[in-house]
Input
Amino acid sequence: KEKTQENLEKQRRLQKKAQEAVEEQGQQIQKLEATIREIEVERQTQRKEFEAVTSERNILGTQLIRRNEELALLYEKIKIQESTLKKGEAQYKNRQEDIRGQKEASGQLKLDLFVAQQQAENTDDLKKEVYHLQRELLQE
Output
């Protein structure tokens, strides 16, 4: 009977230890489940943050492409304006040369006119002199 009593006591201790182990493991399971829930919440938060950052990156990439296209257009416009400016400068230079040539021609024409007027005045004097000389000849 005593041996049965000891066995029974021993079995109760083993059962108590097993029960304590089960309770401890249950607590550990609850802690692990709580940790898993926290990690899952953190994972979802990080996923949302990742999606937001990815979306922002995509928007910035699109904006960068658009800005690069605008910049390329501006460079093209600058190139066209520089070309137009060079053509305008060349035409302006040509016009200045034309004006200079026309001024020289005008000056030459004025000089020719002056010489012609002088010669015309001399012609009148010469005609008068010829007339007087012919008269003198006729009188002789």
Remarks:
- The chain has one domain: 1-103.
- Residues 1-103 form one domain.
